[in-house]
Amino acid sequence: MTRGGRLAQMLFRLIVVLIICLPACVLQAKSKKPAASGDSAGVRTRTIQLPRENKINALAYEGYSNGLLLIGLGEPYAAIDNLKRAEKADPQSFEISLALAELYYSLKDPSMALKELDRTGTRNAAYYRLAAACYQNLGDLDKAVDAAVNLAKLAPDDQTPYSFLATVYRQRQDLDSCIWAYENLARLAPDNARVWNELGQLRLRTQAFDQAKVAFQRSISADSSSANIIAFAALSDLYSIAQMPESSKVILKEALALDSTNMLLHRQLTSIYAEQDSFALALPHAVMAAQLSPLDRNNLRRLGWVYLNLDSLAKADSIFTNLIENGEDLPINRYYLGHIALQEHDYARARDQFGRLVAMEDTLAGRWIDLGYAQRMLGHADSELVTYREGLQHVTADSGKVRLKFAIGAALERGGQVDSAIAVLEDVVASAPNDAEALNYLGYLLADKNLRLNYARDLIKRALDIEPNNAAFLDSYGWVFYRLKDYDKATEYLSRAASLSRDATIFEHLGDVYSAQGKTAEARQWWQKALDISPQNAGLTAKLKQ
Fold this sequence. Notes:
TPR repeats: 193-226, 504-537
Pfam families: TPR_16, TPR_19, TPR_21
Strand content: under 5%
Keywords: TPR repeat
CATH topology of the domain at 1-122: Serine Threonine Protein Phosphatase 5, Tetratricopeptide repeat
Radius of gyration: 40 Å
Helix content: over 70%
Order of helices and strands: HHHHHHHHHHHHHHHHHHHHHHHHHHHHHH
Protein name: Ancillary SecYEG translocon subunit/Cell division coordinator CpoB TPR domain-containing protein
Domain Ancillary SecYEG translocon subunit/Cell division coordinator CpoB TPR: 482-538
């Protein structure tokens, strides 16, 4: 409450007292309801209960009433003198002490205000309301908080202490207490959308997702206009977290109907459609987000990524190239340009982009593997191996080192250095015993070379235990049983693999198993299926001619 407002309230209170309490010897007054306060700590006053009816109380009343009149006339220090005389006449009157305390507070003397408040020992809602404001002005937040908590206990339907406590608890990062304060504010102001939004955000931070969802729903119920778009966006995020993308899309579309040019909403819809691999549906929202915020490079990059996934390589290339030319030479832009070049079979350009990328981020294994792959596609097998081995000198993470060693082993195997490849891959599976890809690769290599078949079978079984429905692993397992001449099990696992993946190698292996069993018709059927997928495979053509 402003000083003028407080003085006007006191003057009004005095007039009421004078009207009710004539003659002066009848010294009684009725309480009024508390008036709302506008000051930062929520100080409010109540009509003062007048002193008891006797000669001393008459003196107290005279000093009290004169004090209020003087306050109204803008004479606060003369008012203090009169209120002090009233206090001397009735030293047990909390009402007189409260009037003095409020006057000191209005004069920016919170210390004297507290001294007056404490004089009678009374501890009621009026005491804690003013005490909280005084302590706050003195910078003693701990005592201000204690006073506000006590006020909340005595006046649980008063918003003032909860508003103050919510602010302090937020500053202190005391999320649980802050949530308690906002829950009470929401209880007292159930139609306040902002309060529900704040409560929802706090619950999000504590990962109370279901409760946060309820809060944002209540916020939207309180205000479903475009002014409350933030609640729609937050509720959409919660549905995404809960793996409910369809509900998330419904909420975002409702929000876009209210505000069709909201960049945040278009960006969120882009992400949801992209996560569902619905890039054609993501595209218009990605375009709109980029148009609405043309200087936001993240939006441009997201649009380029959508174009890349739609195989609109020229448009994607243009976006990432422009980003680099305009000063954003970031690893992510080089990464995308490198993969665009791979899809365009421009392996020299891919090598250049990945080479620049390695210079920026030489501790990430993936960067070296991409560069090595570009070298391989250029036919530079030696450079590929050199790249992986150089990467081992820079990559720091153990998982990254394992990936590079795996790449080295695979490169050695492709180059015909089988013994060296096996040695490297055995080191990989020893270092990473749960690396299913490495287990399968080594197992299949041994089976294909007809080496250590029982060991190969065990390796592939370990891979299948990790990924039981991996078609490539099932193919390897069937193939090792073929090498072991256990054709029934070979047929079982290869048939499962064929049901999961339309792959020429799997079909050819299944044909080989049927051929070994003398089932020529079935063998030819699967070889033909394999040849339909891989028509340039001379080995398949030869088998069908037999």
